[in-house]
Design goal:
single chain; mainly alpha; three-stranded antiparallel sheet; 3 helices; 5 strands; 49% helix
Length: 167
C-alpha cells in the first residue's frame, strides 16, 4: 500500500507540474519529463504525451472517412503553412553547424597528422639510405647495430609508410 501511495503522490506532483509545462514526454528509460522546452530530437513522436496548445498532436483520419478539400481563398492560401517551432529549428541548425565544425576540425587534425607522419617517414628513410650504421637500444638497454637484413627491412617499412602518408 505504501508503494502505491508513493507512486500516486509522484503522479500527482508530475501532473501538477505538467499543467504548467507545455511539453510532456517519456524518455528511453520510461521516465516522464515535463518542460516548457520541446523534447530532445531522439525522443520519438509516440513518446510525446503532451504538446503545447500551439502545436496540436496530429490525429489520423478515421478509416473510410473522406473529406473534400476546401477551396482556397487565394493562391497564397493554397500552400499549407508548416507549423515549425523556431526554437527547435534553431537548436537543430546549431547542432548541424557544430557537427560540421567538428567534422572539419577532425579532417584538419588528420591532415596535419598525415603531414607530420610523412615528414617523419621521409627523414627515417633518408637516415636509413645514408649509408651510416644505424643502432638501436634493445630491451636490456644495450646498443645494437642493424645488420644488412634488418636495415633492408626497416628501409622497406619506411618506404611503405612514406608512400601511404605522403599522398
Amino acid at each position: 500500500m505504501f508503494v502505491t501511495t508513493g507512486v500516486l503522490c509522484a503522479a500527482a506532483v508530475l501532473m501538477s507540474s505538467a499543467a504548467r509545462a507545455q511539453w510532456v514526454w517519456k524518455d528511453s528509460r520510461g521516465q516522464v519529463h515535463a518542460s516548457d522546452l520541446p523534447p530532445p530530437r531522439d525522443i520519438p513522436d509516440k513518446n510525446v504525451i503532451q504538446r503545447p496548445a500551439a502545436a496540436p498532436t496530429p490525429r489520423p483520419a478515421a478509416p473510410g472517412a473522406t473529406t473534400a478539400p476546401a477551396a482556397p481563398a487565394s493562391p497564397a492560401a493554397s500552400v499549407p503553412a508548416a507549423r515549425v517551432d523556431p526554437e527547435l529549428e534553431a537548436r537543430k541548425r546549431r547542432a548541424d553547424e557544430e557537427q560540421a565544425a567538428q567534422k572539419k576540425a577532425e579532417e584538419t587534425r588528420q591532415s596535419s597528422q598525415r603531414v607530420e607522419n610523412c615528414n617523419r617517414a621521409r627523414e627515417a628513410l633518408r637516415q636509413l639510405e645514408s649509408g651510416l650504421r644505424i643502432a638501436r637500444v634493445n630491451e636490456k638497454g644495450e646498443r645494437e647495430f642493424l645488420d644488412d637484413q634488418q636495415l633492408g627491412a626497416e628501409t622497406q617499412r619506411a618506404r611503405q609508410v612514406a608512400a601511404s602518408e605522403c599522398r
